[in-house]
Amino acid sequence: MIHQSTVVCEEMGGNYAWEVVWGGEGRYAWIAIYPRPSECPDSFYNGGVENPRDLEFGLMTVSRKAGPTTAAKQEQGARRSSAVLITGAGGEVGHGLICALHGAGGNSIIATDLRKLEPDQRKMCLETFVGDVCDETLLDRLLAMYEITEIYHLAALLSTRAEFKPETAHAVNVGGTLNLLHLAAEQTRSHGRRVKFIFPSSIAAYGLPDVATKEKAGAIREDDYPSPTTMYGCNKQYCENLGRYYARWYRQLAEDRIADILDFRCVRYPGLISSETVPSGGTSDYAPEMIHAAASGKPYACFVREDARIPFMTMPEAIEATLKLASADASQLTRCVYNISSFAPTAGEIANLVKEYFPKAEITFQPDQQRQAIVDSWPADIDCSAAQRDWGYKPRHTLESAFEEYLVPNIKARYEPSV
Ligand SMILES: NC(=O)c1ccc[n+]([C@@H]2O[C@H](COP(=O)([O-])OP(=O)(O)OC[C@H]3O[C@@H](n4cnc5c(N)ncnc54)[C@H](O)[C@@H]3O)[C@@H](O)[C@H]2O)c1
Predict the structure, then answer these.
(1) Most buried residue among 6, 65, 76, 123 by CB atoms closer than 10 A?
(2) Is residue 107 in a domain?
(3) Residue nearest (by alpha carbon) to ligand 1 atom 32
(4) Which domain holds residue 71?
(5) Distance of alpha carbon 87 from alpha carbon 64, whole angstroms
(6) pLDDT tens across 166-180, in order?
(7) 232 in active site
């Protein structure tokens, strides 16, 4: 049973096509309003109400008495297919994650990003949407169209970019995450299965006060040094807490509260190095940039000191670990947030290895004091024992094996024609 109509809504100034989707036995309704009926995609018409007059469009209020007819409920159930949602899917991690989830089979992937995904990536998805995670209408459309069972919320403005536009970063990194957490909670409410929410945080969530403390601290644990110095780090740390709040305490005083509405799981990534994609906007980018520059025959001026040390891992390891955490038995998880990393070299050690494999590489060190200060506030190493104990995280590579087995062969193949 499909209800679609065009109504005149003076307060909003014109004609609108509308649609309503009910969920959770009439506890809430979702409304989509479009400037023109022709903008409603077919797959959108999957809701229904007993009496459309219960909707008061001028005030945008909805009668809570009306509920879906049995036919409408059946239709809604029949038309909404189950899916895994990836936000920020066009980025470096999204690229690897789509391949891995698709390769594992059995996953219907819905992907969103501000930019259009590459054709190869699009082919692996059930559907892709170009849109902003701050746009609640887009997220509401997803809610109406799919039963989302798992969310990988990757969309973010990274650490360097965020320092140029801190308020925008806050809007995207925090506002976007809040929207997605809300969407996840509504999904659980609508289909009754606890949505899994996987969130990549970062070593940027840490803040060490000075280099001496950093050197003395060694490999630090998740709850150590929780005072980040960047907007991105503040955003990540707050979002970790938001996730924990939604998972355990969301609407804790409401009568119709659903306990443990989300299954929130978070990894704090170190710097990630991919052989397939070149990063932009991050402060750990010097490592991948150095390797890609050498392989493509370009000189590279490293923006941190030779002795700058932070943890890293390869992109496939990060994806593998993320999926391992996602599939871990919930009863084994003693916390929401886990450190993961594989090796913790200095920038100089990375440069030396790059020169071993690419003897013509021209690498100089020209530290940018501000970016160096950010790296100085991040840990030299992190303790991954909680991830090892709870869900069996195991680094696959040392720095040397990452170069030998993963980075060099793949990067050489990628740049072959220009080397
Ligand atoms: N790459 C790393 O080294 C690293 C390290 C630690 C944590 N992380 C985290 O992993 C996640 C993925 O990182 P990545 O390396 O793929 O970053 P990326 O910059 O390559 O990708 C982020 C994607 O998010 C999209 N995006 C940005 N703003 C958006 C918005 N408002 N709406 C929709 N999409 C938007 C961008 O278009 C981009 O495709 C991020 O949350 C990041 O903070 C990455």
Answers:
(1) 76
(2) no
(3) 132
(4) 5-77
(5) 32
(6) 999 999 999 999 999
(7) yes
